[in-house]
Write a structure and sequence with these properties.
Number of domains: 1
Oligomer: single chain
Number of strands: 17
CATH superfamily: Ribokinase
Number of helices: 9
CATH class: Alpha Beta
CATH topology: UDP-N-acetylmuramoyl-L-alanine:D-glutamate ligase
Order of helices and strands: EEEHEHEEEEHEHEHEEEHEEEHHHE
Strand content: 25-35%
């Protein structure tokens, strides 16, 4: 296995497509394809997208109860390239709901908190993590943290990966994520700025704010920082400069579900071919994200899908 994905707070994702969604109104879904239930959580999503690109991975995290068993069962059904290594806890795995409204170009998301993780489960996970890490070249650590998991626990995970010579790629937010960034433990940093444009205690408003934040992240020790800027662009920084990747065509908000995970999967896929080619990895990630926007909801994109989108964005140097 080349990739280990860590999703400490998986979910059962429910996606429904409702045209002209209105609060306090009754809506009926007349086509079953517009109501989807599937395994979720950022790291799990990356594992599934990587399987579409032909890369096997190990998926780890905490699952609990009936919902947790459904998540694992459906994950195994979706791909034989994803090996599961979850720790089961007493409380139920969370459920997330996404209401996609193509008519109004919106996505309304309702996410649950997740189960409480006790000390015994944390120790069990660490033992399994040590074994799985030995089998991987790259670790993807993404998503939210369930109650009971301390921020320094997350830092211990990524530190073990870095000390073992693994690439560590993370898409997240919160104290645990920023602690790892400040300690230079992450190879590629991609903060999730969709809902709140806040990073390292700062509110990002102008393009210059994003540039400075990306530059500071690299100075802290990361090889590359990728900050989503508006809907159709990303600011990318390495030690060699700062660039803006911007889609050539307008992208609808209702098609954004799963694009961040596709971006990460594209970066992982490319870096496994050449660790030093950071900008090319970012470009491949952007192409993967744009390929995902061709669909409503999350989709297994292929290498051919990504290759068709390699000319769908512009690259401009900012620094």
């Amino acid at each position: 296995m080349k990739v280990l994905t860590v999703t400490l707070n998986p979910a059962l994702d429910r996606e429904v497509v409702v045209n002209n969604f209105q609060i306090n109104e009754l809506h009926r879904i007349n086509n079953q394809k517009y109501s989807v239930m599937e395994p979720g959580g950022k790291g799990i999503n990356v594992s599934l997208i990587l399987s579409g690109l032909g890369l096997p991975s190990i998926a780890m995290g905490f699952l609990g109860g009936f919902i947790g068993s459904i998540v694992e069962q459906k994950l195994r059904m979706l791909s034989d390239l994803v090996t599961t290594n979850f720790v089961f806890v007493d409380e139920e795995t969370r459920e997330n709901l996404a209401i996609i409204d193509p008519s109004n170009d919106t996505i309304t998301e309702i996410n649950s908190l997740g189960p409480n993780i006790d000390e015994k489960s944390l120790k069990q996970f660490m033992r399994r993590f040590d074994i799985s890490l030995k089998r991987a070249e790259c670790m993807v650590f993404s998503g939210s943290i369930p109650p009971g998991v301390p921020a320094d626990y997350c830092m211990e995970l990524v530190k073990k990966a870095k000390d073992s010579g693994k690439m560590v790629i993370s898409e997240s937010t919160g104290d645990h994520f920023e602690l790892a960034v400040k300690n230079g433990l992450l190879t590629v940093v991609k903060p999730d700025l969709r809902s709140k444009k806040e990073y390292m205690g700062e509110t990002l408003k102008s393009l210059e704010d994003y540039v400075k934040a990306a530059e500071e992240t690299v100075k802290m020790g990361s090889k590359m920082a990728i900050l989503s800027y508006e809907i159709e662009g990303d600011v990318v920084a390495t030690s060699e400069g700062v660039w803006l990747l911007k889609a050539k065509e307008h992208i609808e908000r209702s098609h954004l579900l799963g694009t961040g995970d596709s971006f990460v999967a594209g970066v992982v896929y490319r870096l496994l071919k050449n660790r030093k080619d950071l900008l090319e990895a970012a470009k491949w990630g952007m192409a993967a994200a744009i390929a995902e926007t061709k669909f409503i909801g999350k989709e297994f994109i292929s290498i051919e899908d990504v290759e068709m989108c390699t000319e769908s964005f512009e690259l401009s140097r900012l620094r």
